[in-house]
Amino acid sequence: MKLDQETIERLAIRLETCELGAIDTHKITDDYPDMDWDDAYAIQNAIKRRKMARGARIAGLKAGLTSHAKMKQMGVEAPVFGFLADYFSVPEGGLIKTSELIHPKVEPEIAFVTKRVLRGPGCHIGAVLAATDFVMPAIEIIDSRYRDFKFDLKSVVADNCSSSRFVVGGRMGDVASLDLRSIGVVLEKNGEPVAFGAGAAVLGHPAAAVAMLANQLGLRGEEIPAGTLILSGGITEAVALRAGDAVTLRMQNLGSVSVRFG
Ligand code: 0L1
Ligand code: MG
C-alpha cells in the first residue's frame, strides 16, 4: 500500500461526504497518482465501516464494468466490485429523489441471491449456479461522485464503484431452467425503448461476474455469505436520467421492474 491510514480515512470522508451531500469532486488519483489497488479497496472499506458505525446494514454486493459496452463507455478495461448499503434499496415502482443524487444513470442488471457460501479462489460459473437460490431483474442507479463521470479504475473503486440506489422486482427465476446468457433485456425510458441486450454481454455469462467477485474477495480472505444479493453488472451502457423520468426494465422470462425519478 502507498497511502497511510490517516490519508485513507480522510479520502473516505471526502468521498462519503460527496455521496451524502450530492456534491461532485475531482478524482482522487489527481492528488495521489501512486495509490494502488489495496489503497483503493481500503478507502471503499473505510466508507463501508463509516456507514456501519452509523447503523447501516450491508444489503448486498455488486460487480461493475462487467460488459464491453460499459468498459468502452467508461474507457476502462477491467471489472470492479463494491457494496450496497441498506438505504440504497428502493421499492419496486418507487420514487428516487434526484435532489439526493449528482448525475444518476441506470443500468439493467441480473441480481443473484445465494443460498450457499461462495469462496474463491477457484470459484467458477458452475459453483455460482449451484449456490444460487434465484435470480431477479434489477435496475442499478449509479452516481459517480466524480465530476462528469470522469475517473480511472482506482478512483472508482475507492468511490464504491459509483453505487447509489438499486431496485429489484419482477419474478424470481430458477437458474436451472434459464439460460442466463440468452436472456433478453429491454430498458424503457418514459415508455420508449432506449437500450437492449442479452445476459451474455456480462463477461459471456452473468454468473462469471459473481465468480470473479468471489475470487477477488478470496484474495482478501473474505467470502460471499449465503443469502447475499449480488448485482452482476450492467448489460447495456448506462442511461442518464433526470427528474420526471420513469424507467422500466423488461427481462425475458423474469418480468419487469420499474422506478421513477422526481
Ligand atoms: O455498476 C457499474 O458498472 C458502475 C461501475 C463504476 C463506473 C461507473 O460509474 O460507470
Ligand atoms: Mg452496475
From TrEMBL:
<dbReference type="InterPro" id="IPR017630">
    <property type="entry name" value="4-oxalocrotonate_decarboxylase"/>
</dbReference>
<keyword id="KW-0456">Lyase</keyword>
<dbReference type="InterPro" id="IPR011234">
    <property type="entry name" value="Fumarylacetoacetase-like_C"/>
</dbReference>
<dbReference type="Pfam" id="PF01557">
    <property type="entry name" value="FAA_hydrolase"/>
</dbReference>
<feature type="domain" description="Fumarylacetoacetase-like C-terminal">
    <location>
        <begin position="103"/>
        <end position="259"/>
    </location>
</feature>
<dbReference type="InterPro" id="IPR036663">
    <property type="entry name" value="Fumarylacetoacetase_C_sf"/>
</dbReference>
<dbReference type="GO" id="GO:0005737">
    <property type="term" value="C:cytoplasm"/>
</dbReference>
<dbReference type="InterPro" id="IPR050772">
    <property type="entry name" value="Hydratase-Decarb/MhpD_sf"/>
</dbReference>
<dbReference type="GO" id="GO:0008684">
    <property type="term" value="F:2-oxopent-4-enoate hydratase activity"/>
</dbReference>
<protein>
    <submittedName>
        <fullName>4-oxalocrotonate decarboxylase</fullName>
    </submittedName>
</protein>
